[in-house]
Write a structure and sequence with these properties.
Distance between the termini of chain A: 57 Å
Number of strands of chain A: 17
Number of helices of chain A: 19
Shape of chain A: globular
Largest interface: A-B, 101 and 101 residues
Helix content of chain A: 25-40%
Mean pLDDT of chain A: 97
CATH superfamily of the largest domain in chain A: Thiamin diphosphate (ThDP)-binding fold, Pyr/PP domains
Low-confidence stretches of chain A: none
Oligomer: homodimer
CATH topology of the largest domain in chain A: Rossmann fold
CATH class of the largest domain in chain A: Alpha Beta
Chain lengths: ~500, ~500
Amino acid sequence: MNGAESLVHTLLGAGVDTCFANPGTSEMHFVAALDRIPGMRCVLALFEGVASGAADGYARMAGKPAATLLHCGPGLANALANLHNARRANVPMVNCVGDQATYHRPLDAPLTADAEGWARGASAWVRTARHAREVGRDAAVAVQVARTAPGQIATLILPSDTCWEAGGEVAPALPVPAAPAVDALAIEQARRLLRGGERVLLLLGGPALAAAALADAHRIAAATGARLLAPGSNARVARGRGRYPIERIPYPVDAAVAALAGVRHLILVGAREPATFFAYPGKPGRPAPADASVHVLARPEQDAAAALAALAEALDAPAVSPPVSPPPEPARGAIGPEAFAHSLAALLPEQAVVVDESITFGRSFFPLTHAAAPHDWLQLCGGAIGEGLPLATGAAIGAPGRRVVSLQADGSALYTVQALWTQARERLDVTTVLFDNRRYAILQHELAAVGANPGRTALDMLDLGNPDIDWLRIAEGFGVAAARATTMEQFNDLFAQSCLRPGPFLIALAT
Amino acid sequence: MNGAESLVHTLLGAGVDTCFANPGTSEMHFVAALDRIPGMRCVLALFEGVASGAADGYARMAGKPAATLLHCGPGLANALANLHNARRANVPMVNCVGDQATYHRPLDAPLTADAEGWARGASAWVRTARHAREVGRDAAVAVQVARTAPGQIATLILPSDTCWEAGGEVAPALPVPAAPAVDALAIEQARRLLRGGERVLLLLGGPALAAAALADAHRIAAATGARLLAPGSNARVARGRGRYPIERIPYPVDAAVAALAGVRHLILVGAREPATFFAYPGKPGRPAPADASVHVLARPEQDAAAALAALAEALDAPAVSPPVSPPPEPARGAIGPEAFAHSLAALLPEQAVVVDESITFGRSFFPLTHAAAPHDWLQLCGGAIGEGLPLATGAAIGAPGRRVVSLQADGSALYTVQALWTQARERLDVTTVLFDNRRYAILQHELAAVGANPGRTALDMLDLGNPDIDWLRIAEGFGVAAARATTMEQFNDLFAQSCLRPGPFLIALAT
């Protein structure tokens, strides 16, 4: 058995059975091993950022890591932006990066680069395999690290001779460390704060945004008057009819400050202390009031759902019913953010997976879609735009049988547009709604905040027109059927049809 | 004056007047400064790898660095693969990377990443600005580093407050260090070797591949019987009628070994000691004979052209005339690599710039096009595929008035296909010939070398069909007119027409 074969067997034995791949010459022995050994679903990406973003989306829905297969330092570099996003989402992932043979590296051939150095900023664990006989063990550790709460990125660099040499040994799956137990003192402290009569806000992140955890959080809120809120960006939120709604901290600094005004105690439940996305002159970097006390009920790596359940019990908080709203109606007439949100709420299929990289156009979507059919809502967590299409691709593979609805701003879509081809090849049930506003709208807002009257140079740098991107041709060029909507009626029809037909579809929404 | 304004003034004062940009929120003060201060040509890219590849192509033709404008660590990460290629091409470049404000970084907001760590593997120099008053000085050093022979990549990270704060000071351009003089002893040693009767090969790289340097190399070869060869990949080679032809070390290991067989003395002239691209079991990592002595006439950072001129003088080598070949004729009939090369040689316009990322289909292009009209030939130097379209984009901006002919493999094109839009927006005179073979042909060859009878999994990972990419739709979607050629006659007509009309055009060549 060569090293590559021990790698594939070890990954499969540890439950990693999906690989998002963009291989090169140095990975041919790995490709050959994947070919010989049944059990691994290999999904080809035309660009590495598609592979890493898809592995992120897959893990969020499947609840376990996928592997990626990347080619040398530069292939890893192309994956980094979405590895950064996945790291911020606390997603498990195992990157397999082929590289120069151990003895060839000193010759500094053209593709030789510092793959380890590049991996570090996006990985919890980086190792370069040294010999075929160690590859299985290295892979087992990589999966163990990836599955360690709250979910981590492990990067294993594989010099080509460690793959082709004999002596490979399959390693058994290593035990996943239990998440650190929630501290009974932290639960007792939270109970006292909640009974103390001061204004308390629970900030819910990670597993605290699953359906049962949100139900417990609402029990606590109803029993104590505490407020509930989620961070601005979240890996996965369980939403829709019969579930318990939660709002998020808004993106604009002033709105974020307003949302947290008056809070005396901020209790973190699987979330980190919130910071604004960027600094602005004269504005605070933390949206919470300066005099608010910050407490931790559960750190991101702890079981926030168990913590909420224990806290609800400690408070003797009775169960509460989820809110009942009238069934939403699709909007008619002109296209706009609120009209779109109403149609989405009305037409979203049961158990849809919504991937939201809608940026400025979508800021009102979340509060207006609580009454949609039950669904999961996935966001870009690291702010590196260009993850939406890959995330939707991976989510569809991680959640077969569920329609993925990919809400996608045009500027962001252009970073990793190649994901459409993988959706076509794998015949994934993804409806992409492309908000075609032909500009970096968020940057136009930011520039307006900076100085007056932008001139030609600035406008050209924030404008995606001249020439306009023809999204129907782009989608069809990658094999995805597409149509354009210029009214809400057209959108409603196209969207409903797309959810009934198998495979991907793109709706270019003129906004 | 704020820091951003001092940055723009300093760059312009140091001769950097072109910026390939993909800005974000943290760069808005830089964008505003570019808007207020005339003189900088700003070229928008839809993806950062387009910006860095274009800056590479620009520098190769303009002979001076461009700036890039990138957004935070992940924006830099997206640029890394083509920064790696540019580093291998010894190209000057100044990267300006916006980042979190100095005081905001400790809050670890979502887009916070280790930009410095990622920059290092692709940069000769990395600095994070600390205060607005130092930004001008930092920028002047960055340009100085970039222009230091043989051409280097300098990365300046700019926390947003260093751009928006007052106190900016314009720094004067710093002197560019003279290249280390060529050693007279090295010239004398080379002269003796060349007169010594043993088999000598001059390996010419970098500035030794300019027209006058190649003329001197041919004087030397004619006078001494020495052989001449260039590395497999080169930043820029002066070629065509009236110039002196040079062949390259072939890519396949066996062919490379055969090309260097019998060499007793290998003299490096602006080139590094050759290594094979990858290691293969049982094959050598260096193609030169194990018993060959390696000598250095000029290191990459020395003036290899001056070294050749001095050596030719020391040898009293008489001038030789360039070879005269009959004018090539365009091919007719079926499409194939040799037919294509004949048509290219016949139809290439005077002073064209050829960008070659043709990979497997193009291996015979170089030897068959020596008799084309005078042109420059540019290649990907770091092996990270996905630089061709950006390189062509930047070369067109760096060499106005010259037709750029972009020879592009389909698999590689898909990494940075967004470059087509920048070509359309800037109305660049680029003819892209897209070799549409619907597979990673190089990897199919490599896999065949590894094991027998690839199965479905392996084939799917190396195949770009299912669905086929529709290159006409993709090009037109990005605003570039396009047509398909299925015979050489069709290609000849389309190519000739494209060279007469302004702006970009794409020919999908069914191969």
